[in-house]
Write a structure and sequence with these properties.
174 residues; alpha+beta; 2 domains; transmembrane; General stress protein 17M-like domain-containing protein; transmembrane helix; GSP17M-like_dom; membrane
Length: 174
């Protein structure tokens, strides 16, 4: 299964190596990526040459959802937690190369140093905003609609298959 954001380090046969506009004729348009994915899956199940299909997100929007308010306690706690994980990792690696049975000390030192440095870096970052961004958020790139395109030689067949899919109820109602 692939993600809409995943990609290969090397393009496959026929895939452009530089960003290029998509080619093909529209054979379906959907409100959600899940619906477009279902349509392409239906095409694949019916032996359609899906290697000639492209899902295109149209009317892109960057959506930033606010997840909470930031204050010094939350910033320092988050910095301590992320520093602790990194410190544990470094301490564990150092412990692997220490004398037999002496791994506990490096892990504790790594944990302590990670917490301290994590809090310092988080405090410096938060203080540098000077109260202009006292909230945390998560960003997501979404599209207003998702068009499924197929190469002209297979567009009519693809439209016919997707028309049959539209006649069936969605999987949640079956």
């Amino acid at each position: 299964m692939s993600s809409p954001f995943s990609g290969s380090a090397r393009p496959g046969p026929g895939a452009p190596s530089l960003p290029t506009p998509p080619s093909g004729w529209p054979i379906g348009s959907y409100a959600t990526y899940e619906e477009a994915q279902r349509a392409v899956d239906h095409l694949a199940d019916n032996d359609f040459p899906v290697q000639e299909v492209t899902i295109v997100g149209v009317d892109l929007m960057l959506v930033e959802r606010v997840t909470g308010r930031l204050n010094w306690a939350r910033v320092l706690g988050g910095g301590a937690a992320s520093g602790a994980w990194f410190g544990l990792f470094v301490g564990f690696i150092m412990g692997l190369f220490s004398a037999q049975g002496a791994w506990f000390g490096p892990v504790l030192v790594g944990l302590g140093a990670g917490v301290v440095f994590g809090m310092i870096f988080a405090a410096v970052g938060y203080a540098s905003t000077r109260g202009r961004r006292d909230f945390s958020s998560a960003s997501q790139l979404v599209a207003g609609r998702y068009d499924v395109l197929a190469q002209p030689s297979h567009a009519e067949q693809g439209r016919d298959l997707l028309a049959r899919l539209a006649m069936r109820p969605p999987p949640s109602q079956q």
